[in-house]
User: What shape does this take?
Amino acid sequence: MATAITTPRPVELETGPDLSPPLGHIQLVDYLAEFRRSLQSNFSRSILTMLGIIIGTGAVIAVLAIGDGSQAAISNTIGSLGTNLISVNPARFSTGGVRSAANGAATLTYADAEAIATLKPEVAAVAPQVSQQFQITAGAENTNTSVVGTTTSYSAVNNWNIGEGSFFTDADVQASNPVAVIGQTTASTLFPSSDAIGQTMKMGGVSFAIIGVMADRTQSGPQDPNDVVLVPITTAHFRLTGGPSLDTSTMRTIGVEAASEADIAAATSAVQTLLEQRHNINSGGTDDFQIQTQAQLLQVRTGVEQTLTLFLVSIAAISLIVGGIGIMNIMLVSVTERTREIGVRKAVGASARDILTQFVVEALLLSLTGGLIGVIVGPLGAMAYGHFAKATITVTVPPMLLAAGVSMAIGLFFGIYPAQRAARLDPIQALRAE
Assistant: This one.
């Protein structure tokens, strides 16, 4: 009896669901790899495309760093003058339709300053000032600088301490003594290799003994505050500028120190009322003087700096827009060059969303790379400017993050259209492309 031979059935292995991505599906790692290959194959073109983003991002960061540093320097300088300082200056005047320069009117006198000093308790001290440019000689050295005649209250009112030696006294003012206190710059110019204290200098045909050198003061503008000579106001009037009466002599400015920050408003109002009475100005009339506090000065200068910074940032933003347009153009070229590749990927299962995501990610990475380079270039450029211009630079993280975020947003905005165009390609037509 023959035995039937049967073929054993193959064992079926139990398998789970197929978790592998469908053919043609592109993962994030593939996006990054594709971007790297594109960057390597078209390196020069990619760098030129990112150039607008690099310049724009770097310029925005540099401008903000320079602007923030400038505002900080202004705040420090104005704060160093004393928060209680009130400046009273002559107002501008017009003659034949032509306006004078600031402090051009002769409307403030020494008698006005003496009257302001009686406004107690709101006013703590008063320092009237007259000034004139003089050619000063000391041995073989000489310089042309501003000579300021003032009183012993000048140091306290202007919050400027003596660095070496001493300030002149009330006795020097009463006797019109030919003594002088000079700034650091003037001292180094006239006495480059010796101590200025105890030396003599000549100006206006009069010899002056140098009794002190002021402490160094931070410079915030084109004029060096340390290039100055301070003398008793009576000495300046009777020995240098001349004039029959000190009371009627014209003051360039009258510095007023309020008793405290809380008294600034009251002191300002009291000074204005007093000067209007002395100058016979009716209520509602135009004052022939102007009063300015440190807070007002800080507000004006900060406003100017902010306006300038905004203007420069707007110009830098144009570079970002131009860079975005460059990214859009290069991505459109890339779509044209890779039409056949797009067709192959669609034919093997890639969806329109996969293609859209791929090109959007490439545009984002291109823009982000340019932004990151700009984040490095911007602070370096700002620090280089600060080094050569001797300016204060403040580099902070928020502007860097903002600039990098804006560069990504621009890449996304200008990369969507080329990506949509790639995603809409018909796979059959794309495969026929050469």
